[in-house]
Design a protein that fits this description.
Blueprint (H helix, E strand, L loop, with lengths): L18 E3 L1 H6 L7 E5 L11 H14 L4 E6 L4 H13 L2 E7 L9 H7 L3 E5 L4 H17 L4 E4 L10 H13 L5 E6 L3 H10 L4 E5 L6 H10 L12 E3 L12 H14 L8 H13 L9 E5 L3 H4 L10
Parallel strand pairs: 2-10, 3-4, 3-6, 4-5, 7-8, 7-10, 8-9
Antiparallel strand pairs: 1-2
Helix pairs in contact: 2-3, 2-6, 3-4, 6-7, 7-8, 9-10
């Protein structure tokens, strides 16, 4: 579809999100006190906030343009994207079906509580192989059509080349808020957040910290960039750090646990164990080995996700 034929993003959330200095955290990790800021995309408003709301402004514009009655998407049991999809569906008067990978828990915790509170239906795929998940999404879409509705399937993590435009907008906000940015550090999950930032700020300024959400983050990011208007994926220049994955996506990596404590005890900022804690751990590692210099103007992108903390298996070990 030509770029000028794509629907305009719908007005969800509160923009621009603030940028806050983090001098105590900066000093603790070896940066100059005036060199570190936190971009508060955990404060986007609707549904508990988080980076997925910027993408849903675009994907839900497509859904409304198609006359959808039901949003369907996929994710891990504590998916922040699933939570925000449920909240946006409620705001727009749509039904929501969340296809989640794994066995249904004996009790709902974290994001799952909020999803049900917003009225979403949860469908579980006990064997989370991609093909089985795809078949369950297709089954749910057929069920909606059989009931006379119109389903709209949002991709895993809400990430598409169209949705990534939400983070082109975020990059533009940052250029006005922190002139002369050297680095933006962000968690890499499904890739749309980093793709939009790279498209706006360039590969040389954006550092993605892999969370283990996708098997090949570099290929995922390149594909997203290639699909953006005027897009070309500078594969050689992309900065994706795989050093914080640890034992896997659903685990609590050692560096992430330490980063969560440090952010809370220096700045009163709470991170989630899957995304933002890994991202800060990556930033700390880059500062320690000199890849981020002491005086470099650095932004840590806080993408939200706090409700997931309360459903994470590593929760008892954090304090």
């Amino acid at each position: 579809m030509p770029a000028d034929a794509l629907p305009a993003p719908i007005p969800l959330g509160t923009w621009p999100t603030p940028v806050e200095p983090a001098p105590r955290l900066a000093a603790a990790i070896g940066l100059a006190a005036d060199a570190l800021w936190i971009k508060r995309d955990d404060l986007t408003g609707l549904g508990g906030g988080g980076n997925k709301l910027r993408k849903l402004r675009y994907t839900c514009a497509q859904a409304l343009a198609a006359g959808a009655t039901t949003l369907i998407t996929t994710g891990a049991p504590q998916s922040n994207h699933a939570r925000l999809t449920a909240a946006v569906a409620a705001r727009l008067g749509l039904r929501c079906v969340l296809v989640l990978e794994g066995a249904p828990p004996s009790a709902l915790q974290g994001n799952l509580v909020l999803e049900r509170l917003a009225g979403a239906e949860l469908a579980w795929v006990t064997d989370p192989a991609p093909e089985r998940t795809r078949r369950e999404v297709e089954r749910q879409a057929r069920r909606v059509r059989d009931d006379g509705g119109i389903p709209h399937v949002i991709p895993f993590g809400g990430s598409s080349s169209f949705a990534a435009r939400g983070y082109v907008e975020c990059g533009t906000e940052l250029l006005g808020q922190v002139p002369g940015i050297d680095h933006v550090v962000v968690a890499f999950g499904s890739g749309g957040t980093m793709a939009g930032l790279v498209a706006c700020l360039g590969a040389e300024r954006v550092i993605g910290i892999d969370t283990g959400a996708v098997p090949d983050p570099r290929a995922t990011l390149s594909e997203l960039l290639d699909g953006m208007p005027g897009g070309h994926a500078p594969r050689a220049g992309l900065q994706i750090d795989g050093g914080q994955v640890g034992a896997g996506y659903a685990t609590l990596a050692p560096g992430a646990a330490a980063a969560m404590r440090l952010a809370a005890r220096t700045e009163g900022i709470f991170l989630d164990p899957t995304y933002t804690a890994r991202a800060l751990a990556g930033l700390i590692a880059h500062a320690a080995d000199g890849r981020i210099k002491r005086e470099h103007r650095t932004v840590f992108l806080h993408t939200g996700g706090l409700p997931g903390l309360f459903g994470h298996p590593g929760l008892p070990h954090l304090t």
